[in-house]
Amino acid sequence: MSTEYLDKTGLTYLWGKIKSKFQEKLVSGINIKTINNQSVLGSGNISISGGGGTSDYDQLSNRPQVNSVTLTGNKSSADLGVADASHTHTTDDISDVSGVSGHVQIGDIHICYGAVTISATANTYQETQVTLPYTYSSNPVCVASLGNRAAAARTAYATQGSLAGNKIYVGCYSTSARDIYISWMTIGA
């Protein structure tokens, strides 16, 4: 061992080297944090409670809503203004759908879709002209489907006919006088 460490300066230097290898004494709130002002030093368990949370749903702020109805208690679909998972419609449930339409483009293919209401006369074919939201460069494929499958409505059709590239005829045949709802679609370039 070198004699340089035996004087006061040498011992101070050596003590500093030894001390640097060990952790300082922990002092709660000075060099180690506390939890809810309780020291974490020592043995045993620290019980943590409070913290601003709640296990009572009714005490929550900003509870979720559906159609502006706060979700509390046992709400029915009617309470929330939504349809049951399993439900049916009658033709009386369907409102006037005339003029509903849209257009989607997928690559070079254009799809127009929509719905019309035709006030059918008994035992006649009736049709209406529809202006498409897109003008086709050639005749598109046209399809139609009855929106209300009443026994009176026998068939529905959509056709390009001799009209310009942005108009089609949508029609139906009915055995009785009634409103017939028809959805239609055209596909083309």
Give a verbal description of the structure.
With 189 residues, the protein is mainly beta. The protein has a domain at 96-188: Immunoglobulin-like. The chain has helices at 8-19, 77-80; strands at 65-66, 69-70, 100-106, 109-120, 124-131, 141-146, 153-159, 167-174, 178-188. It has a 4-stranded antiparallel beta sheet, with no helix packed on it. β3 and β4 (109-120) form a beta hairpin. The longest helix has 12 residues, at 8-19. 14% of the residues are buried.
In short:
With 189 residues, this protein is mainly beta.
Task: Tell me the structural class.
Answer: mainly beta
Number of strands: 9
Tell me the span between the first and last alpha carbons: 96 Å
Instruction: Show unreliable segments.
Output: none
Q: What is the number of helical segments per DSSP (H or I, 4+ residues)?
A: 2
Report strand %.
25-35%
Helix share, percent: under 10%
Strand order across the largest sheet:
3-4-9-6
Instruction: Give the SSE string.
Output: HEEHEEEEEEE
CATH topology grouping of the domain at 96-188? Immunoglobulin-like
Shape: elongated
Query: What kind of sheet is the major sheet?
Result: 4 strands, antiparallel
Output the radius of gyration: 39 Å
Q: Overall pLDDT, averaged?
A: 77
Highest-level CATH class of the domain at 96-188: Mainly Beta
CATH architect. name of the domain at 96-188: Sandwich
